[in-house]
Specification:
The chain has about 230 residues and is an alpha/beta fold. The protein has helices at about 45-55, 75-90, 105-110, 225-230; strands at about 5-10, 15, 20, 60-65, 95-100, 115, 120, 125, 140, 145-150, 155, 160-165, 170-175, 185, 205-210, 215-220.
């Protein structure tokens, strides 16, 4: 699959060249229906990011949008978590870049680092995906839709990968890096129910699940094939 050439999948992240990409941290998201604990306290996300940084030693860490969740004032825990994320990237000498998403309404009041609506890595462009990109690329990496897949009754975060899926360019859709964000089960959605305007056709997208036990990524059949299965 061309979309995965030169890509390492790890946890809910990918590494392209020396760039580590995560998405949709939603730091500061309040408890919602069915969730009894506040979402986005950050301890687990920071620890997992620390592991990724120390294992892969990236030169750049890109957060592909929705670093924060929408709110009127900045929660104290959100500030603390962001400070820890900045420190984690700095410990391995990585530059931290954010491509703002639709929930990052107050990001500039808290963040003084690099902001870029679209961040290029070679022929790949990283962006949040809530609007169509201005930059032409051979491959796009986006977030926004929080994909998951159910396997034997258990839901797992997944990356969606497809060749030639957007204006003939390859496409990767990252899950939320926040393991308390439930996400959407992609085999149950029609194309019209996906949020990103870049997802105009989804049948040929292939879910990729990272197995934390084996440290390997597992490729599933395309969404079109999965939907035909009984």
């Amino acid at each position: 699959m061309d979309a995965l050439v030169g890509v390492t999948v790890a946890d809910r992240a990918i590494i392209i060249d020396d760039t580590l990409v995560i998405s949709d941290l939603h730091i500061g998201k309040a408890a919602s229906s069915g969730v009894q604990l506040p979402v986005g306290g950050g301890d687990n996300m920071v620890k997992r990011l620390e592991t990724l940084c120390h294992v892969h030693s990236p030169e750049t860490v890109v957060i592909a949008g929705d670093l924060l969740h929408s709110f009127d004032t900045i929660p104290r825990l959100a500030e603390e978590t962001l400070t820890r994320i900045e420190r984690t990237a700095g410990e391995v000498g990585a530059n931290l870049v954010v491509t703002p998403g639709n929930h990052d309404t107050l990001l500039e009041t808290l963040w003084s680092g690099d902001l870029s609506p679209e961040f290029p890595v070679g022929e790949t462009v990283i962006t949040h995906g809530h609007v169509e990109p201005e930059t032409t690329a051979e491959r796009y990496v986006i977030g926004h839709d929080h994909p998951t897949i159910a396997v034997e009754g258990t839901r797992y975060p997944c990356i969606l990968a497809g060749d030639g899926m957007y204006n003939d360019a390859d496409l990767l859709v990252l899950p939320s890096f926040n393991d308390l964000v439930r996400g959407v089960e992609v085999t149950e959605l029609s194309t019209e129910e996906f949020l990103s305007p870049m997802l105009t056709s989804v049948r040929e997208l292939r879910p990729i699940v990272y197995d934390t036990g084996s440290g390997e990524s597992l490729q599933f059949p395309t969404l079109g094939e999965l939907r035909r299965q009984p």
